[in-house]
């Protein structure tokens, strides 16, 4: 199942619809709109998944042999359960400033460069206040996509004509919304915030 920053029921409520009385096709459309909206919000956040997930066996290529810190690809990092360098489990690491720290660095071999494999939990738990901005943006995007639930491509009345774009094309974030999402969830948002 795709990530969801809101539920189809919440989108129905946002649209002032009674979810229970909608057809199965309409309910499926609401689910799709929530998933599309969530994907657009997370893309605007620089690819951060935002919702809490377990990232299992994530492989990170070591690029700097002298760096003691190793950035994890998804933020915020809530916990780390395992770390391996080139397949060997290590325990002499610490989670600091949203990164893994190790006194000996992260290289075991220079040719080829080492790879770190880690399993960690990132994102915010369901119900977290930190998810509210993403939820708001997802519901707004979903409402834009709902504007033509029947799928009509055009309508005409006398000399008035209108052509509808596909739902996904209507679901666009403004520059202000994109900036707000990046500020709240982008990689730079975690420089100050630390979960150790």
Structural write-up:
This protein is of the alpha+beta class. Helix content is 30%, strand content 23%. It contains five helices and nine strands. The chain has helices at 8-14, 24-44, 132-146, 167-170, 175-185; strands at 53-61, 69-71, 77-85, 88-89, 94-96, 99-101, 115-122, 154-157, 160-163. The chain has a four-stranded antiparallel beta sheet with strand order 1-7-3-4, with no helix packed on it. A three-stranded antiparallel beta sheet has the order 2-6-5, with no helix packed on it. Strands 8-9 form a two-stranded antiparallel sheet. β5 and β6 (99-101) form a beta hairpin. The chain is elongated, with a radius of gyration of 21 Å. Mean pLDDT is 88; it is low at 191-196.
């Amino acid at each position: 199942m795709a990530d969801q920053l809101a539920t189809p029921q919440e989108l129905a409520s946002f649209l002032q619809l009674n979810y229970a009385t909608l057809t199965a096709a309409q309910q499926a459309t609401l689910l799709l709109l929530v998933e599309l909206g969530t994907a657009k919000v997370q893309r605007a956040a620089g690819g951060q998944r935002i919702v809490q997930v377990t990232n299992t066996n994530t492989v990170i290529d070591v690029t700097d042999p002298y760096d003691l810190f190793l950035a994890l690809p998804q933020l915020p990092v809530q916990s780390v359960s395992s770390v391996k360098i080139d397949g060997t489990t290590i325990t002499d690491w610490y989670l600091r400033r949203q990164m893994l720290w190790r006194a000996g660095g992260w290289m075991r071999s220079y040719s080829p460069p080492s790879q770190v494999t880690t399993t960690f939990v990132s994102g915010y738990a369901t119900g977290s206040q930190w998810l509210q901005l993403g939820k708001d943006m997802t519901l707004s995007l979903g409402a834009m996509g709902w504007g033509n639930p029947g799928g009509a491509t055009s309508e005409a009345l006398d000399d008035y004509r209108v052509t509808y774009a596909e739902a996904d094309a209507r679901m666009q974030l403004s520059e202000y919304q994109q900036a707000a999402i990046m500020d709240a969830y982008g990689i730079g948002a975690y420089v100050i915030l630390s979960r150790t």
